Amino acid sequence: MRQLWVWMLLMALAFVNYRCHCCLQEERSGLLEIKAWFSHAGAGYDDLQSWDKEDLNCCNWDMVECDSTTNRVIELDLSWVNSDGLEDLYLNASLFLPFKELESLYLSGNQLVGGLKNQGSLLSILFSLHIN
């Protein structure tokens, strides 16, 4: 009987450990907001198709890289998501605030204008910003 309890405990721990290898809910929600923002602007459908609200592990999504220890998003490569856009997009830099450990943000080729001028606190958390 004791072996059964030990086995059940090990299985429960394995399940909990498996479930914990996901990105943080706050960051997953933030990524889905970015997807909605690009989609509302008429861009990014094909590029962001793997960003599925049913998939709890956003670390496996295209263009997202997470730290292997903390499971926090450390890199977003959103280059050319709006490459076929008909008009310029005004960047809402506050979309990136949930990403506390973001080191690299690639935004080139998106016809972005404005939005970064008064975002000093946001830019101070970024290691490198690529918009060219």
Automatic annotation (TrEMBL):
Keywords: Leucine-rich repeat, Repeat, Signal
Keyword Repeat: yes
Annotated signal peptide: 1-22
Domain Leucine-rich repeat-containing N-terminal plant-type span(s) in chain numbering: 25-67
Record's keyword annotation contains Repeat: yes
Residue intervals passing through the bilayer: none
InterPro entries named in the record: DNA_repair-toleration, LRR_dom_sf, LRR_N_plant-typ
Protein name: Leucine-rich repeat-containing N-terminal plant-type domain-containing protein
UniProt source species: Salix brachista
SUPFAM superfamilies noted in UniProt: L domain-like
A Pfam family the protein falls into: LRRNT_2
